[in-house]
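Can anyone check this?
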Amino acid sequence: MSVNDEELTEKEAELMRELEEFKKEKERVRNLLGSIGGARQNRREQLINMGFLAIVVVFFTLELTTHFLPSYISLEIGVLLVSIKIIMLIHSANRANHFSFWILNSIEFRMNEINKRTITMEKELNKIKREMNLPD
């Protein structure tokens, strides 16, 4: 086996390690995404939305047919339910924004890390060129 073949197998082994590391990280991110906004959460939000809708429809129907509550109390209950729903939407949006910020911050960190590695590699390459008396 020649030197070039050994270098090639070393590079292949390194690429395979990097590929395995990437797959592990991808699976970790996928699990994290699932825990933050997975199907269970959507199911819970659907149940809450259906509950709000049912309460509003029941109050609306009872108010139109029986007038069992004074109209201003029904109006206040409706405003309260809408306010609660708006607060829930704001909370959900904040969670999504926080997660987006976390992802962007992670990407920036990785880019800076790659940039540092590139600069180091350029310095080493220039050092090797100077040692071999090659032009830049």
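Reply from J.R.: I decoded it. The mean pLDDT is 82.
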